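Final report, closing paragraph on structural work. Over the funding period we assembled a curated collection of sequence-structure pairs, and we close with a single example.
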Amino acid sequence: MTHFQRLGECPIERQGAVGRGPADWCRTVGIDDEWGLATNSVDRAYLYRLAKQNIAPEKFFLSVMAWGAMRVDHGRSAWAVRKKWVPLVKLALDGTAHRSELYREFIEAKVSGLGPAFFTKLIHFAGHGTNAAIGYIMDQWTAKSVNLIASEEGGRPVVDVSAGGWVARTNDQHVYEAFCRKVDDLAQRLGVSGAQAEERLFSHGGWQPGAWRRYVAQHWKFDPSAKGAVSGRLPAGTLASRARAPKEEES
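Its predicted structure, as stored:
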C-alpha cells in the first residue's frame, strides 16, 4: 500500500476545538485583552468565520496562535515586535496578495518567535475570508506528509525539514508554493477541497493522535542527503510522544 493510499483509507477525524482559549493564552503571554477574545478553546470553523469579519489584526493573530498552541516565550517574542507582522496580517485578511507573496513577506520580516509553522497558519485561516488562492498550514506534520507522498511518487521531498523534525526557515516562497500545489493535487485526487485535504494531512494530536498522524510518526525520518525528509522512523522519542506533540516547538 502506498502512502497516498494509506492517507485515503485513514478515517476523516475532525480536530475540534483545541488549545487554550485565546483570552487565557493572551493573559499567559502577558497581554491585556483589548479585543474581546474568546474565552473557550476554538476550532477551525471559528477561525474561518473570524477571518471574514472586520477585525483587528491583533485579535486574529492572538486567536490563531492560541489555537496552534504557540509556546508562551515565542508568543512574547512575536508580540514585542508586532509592528513587523501587523501590516502582514492586514494584507492577508484583505486578500490582495498571493499566498506565496505573503509567505515571502513573512520570511523577510524575520519576526522573532514566528516561523513558517505558525505564520502559515495565519495565511491559511485569513485566506478563507477572501477570493485569493488558499495557502495551507506548512508545519511539521503537513510537511512530513507531503514529503512522504512526493518522495514515494518519484519526486524529491518538497519541504526542507530539520533533523529535529521542524520546518526550516530556509524554505522560501517557491517551496511554499510547491507545497501548496501538492496539497491542491492531493485534494483533487481525494475528491475534497484543498482545506479538507490539508486538515487530513494535519490530522490531530493530543493523547490519542489521529490515524494519519500515527502513520507519519512511524514512517518519517530525517534524510541528510536530501532537502527535506523521506520515509522511515523519527529520530528520537517514543511513538506516543512523537505523534502527540501537543505544542509546536518550531518558531
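The CA atoms of residues 120 and 137 lie 5 Å apart. Residues 173-190 form the longest helix (18 residues). We thank the funder for supporting this effort.
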